[in-house]
Amino acid sequence: MATLSDILTTHAGNWTLVPGRSRVSFQNKTLWGLSTVTGRFTEFTGEGTAADEVSGRVVIAAASVHTGIGKRDNHLRSADFFDIETHPDITVQVTGLGAADDGSARLTTVLTIRGVSKTVDLPVTLQVLDDGALQLSGRCEVQRGDFGVSGDLLGMVGPTTVLTGELVFTRG
């Protein structure tokens, strides 16, 4: 696994996200905590720069949400949840990278959903793959209500969403 120092020195440059080798997913409790909805987004793009500082951006097409149940996916696209007609994209803007207390890395990001932007501190692991690509893996929890994502019929849907990303970048 590459260290933070490695990323900022040996891996300096511009990086492009490879969607076919990456995954963006989420989990949310429903049915009053008895069940977990798991979903993923199938369309996203991104780029980043590693130099003295780290920056980047990932844009996720909210309409690409996929849970395996078409009716639920359509509801998630509606104004109750992602409101894709008004807010077609979910964005993650990376504004910095630093060391975490345990020696791993932490991205400072601004997550924007439904036009609402919040700073999210995202712990990540960094790995240089055999072909020289860089894989960032991270997981965080957000309160969906903080982003105006309601859609909570009779209190069935839990307030916390777990976001997970395994993103592969190549030089470019």
UniProtKB/TrEMBL annotation:
Protein name: Lipid/polyisoprenoid-binding YceI-like domain-containing protein
Species whose genome carries this gene: Mycolicibacterium alvei
InterPro entries per record: Lipid/polyisoprenoid-bd_YceI, TTHA0802/YceI-like_sf
Listed transmembrane segments: none
SUPFAM superfamilies hit by this protein: YceI-like
Domain Lipid/polyisoprenoid-binding YceI-like span(s) in chain numbering: 14-170
One Pfam family recorded for the sequence: YceI
Family note: Belongs to the UPF0312 family.
